[in-house]
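ugh ok so i messed up the first submission bc i forgot one of the chains. this is the corrected input, ALL of the components this time, i swear. 572 residues overall. if the numbers dont match what u have on ur side tell me asap before i send this to the collaborators (the ones from the other lab, u know who)
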Amino acid sequence: MLMQNKSGSQGRNQLVDLQKAGIQRNGRWLVRGVDLSINRGEILTLIGPNGAGKSTTAKLVTGVLRPSEGTVARAGDLRIGYVPQKLSIDWTMPLSVRRLMRLTNSLTDADLLAALSATGISHLINAEVRHLSGGEFQRALLARAIARKPDLLVLDEPVQGVDFAGETALYDLIRQIRDTTGCGILLISHDLHMVMAATDTVICLNGHVCCRGTPDSVSRSEDYQRLFAANARGLALYSHQHDHTHLPDGRVLHGDGSITDNCHPEDGYHHHHDHDGHDRHGHGHHGHGTRDGEATRHA
Amino acid sequence: MLDDFFVRALIAGIGVAVTTGPLGCFVVWRRMAYFGDTMAHSALLGAALSLLFSLNLMVSVFGVAVVVSLILLVLQRRQALSADALLGILSHSTLAIGLVLVAFMSWVRIDLMAFLFGDILAVTRQDIALIWGGGLVVLAAVVWLWRPLVASTISEDVAEAEGLKPERARLLFMLMMALVIAIAMKIVGILLITSLLIIPAATARRFSASPERMAVFASMIGALAVAGGLFGSLNYDTPSGPSIVVAALLLFIVSLLPFGRAGADATTGGIGP
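and heres the new structure output, hopefully the right one now
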């Protein structure tokens, strides 16, 4: 029913659609119950703490990983441009920026140069990739992905190692690419300030979808206030709404001490805004639980 | 001086070197030296089985190498032991089983040294046909799969996301390795095949500005090493396989010397002075 509605209303514009997608490795759920879809001309941003499943979700979208449950539907002949979070090139491989640009497809010199100019590194066209700085390397990877003229750009932390001024420029560029080519963009970032202006939808992940919405609607929500208030204080960004812990065996320990197989909202255990109730029982998100006190006070 | 057997050996050896060059580049880039060794060592088991069941030598060596690499894939998925340890187990146990089988077959007299270190005298016209035929098949496949192979060497994820089917490329690469081992065995021998994959590729690195050039240079350097090694083998009556490897090593050492373009590229290679 839901599927029909979606495909009916959005039709050809939908590039990729995840329904209750989850992926399990060695008995542990890396991410679960993810519903998301990306349309042409839309920028979707994923945020979340380390290990929240952001990159895993990106790999579900690109088809690098197959879901253990749920479905992932991609438009036929979907052309993807992918900037992975990590990429290491062995020094034994001689590789210039020019050659890197043609890694997965052939390219005219004009297109190649245009992409390098757009990311501001056309002067490095003949440089050895392993001699690039971190920021230059990210620009080269982004240039490579956009030169493909993809339908869907998947950018996993595309501005890591880029200085502040460059970051602004690259996010402007990403928005500009969306505006001019009309491609869909999946953006992973932990710097919400920078991406907010261009983003249509934000999804906060923490092993599952914690919260979502347009920046406008989210910005009025309590979650968003916490996100931004917390962001200003640095590491406390993700202290909101952790009312449960993911156990090593994949089950979920909730704030009230109960254990269930997953943390889907329909469990009835997953309440985002009842920290004051649960915190007293000592909930166990050790990794990022330092601001529990704050969260309680806010709530 | 150029007796008939020597010309045959030269033609066969160059055919092998031309084939191992591009494959060797991938072995170096992907850090698969030990994997190549393991597949090569399993060739003795293949040779023993071919004697036992009167099969064609190359076919059974190829078959065993393929089976060993598939076993490795399955064991790696179960993640009980590290890839390193699994390779060690498979590498030496297949070699040992091969040696034991050969020892049991008292009714056949075989020259074990020829299997282990290669024998130029053993190269026949049929071998030349198989080496060049198989080599051309491998080279054609490398050209066909070049983009997916290079792309997935740099990033499996990017190759997969952008539709290059890296898994298929990897599987075919393993088949190519098995085929190369089967055809190279007579020239350099089971124990030294990996060196013919790695040393010319490593030598070519210094002179190459792109993956494509490195593959071509590796073939040329390999052919040079084969020629040099075979001449040395003839002159000094040394075993052919080890002589070729020594010649390849000499070329590698020469490539390390700080001559020619001593500019930025050579000195930042990581192994330069």
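quick check: Chain B touches chain A through 31 residues (CB under 8 Å). that seems consistent at least. Residues 262-273 of chain B have pLDDT under 50 and may be disordered.
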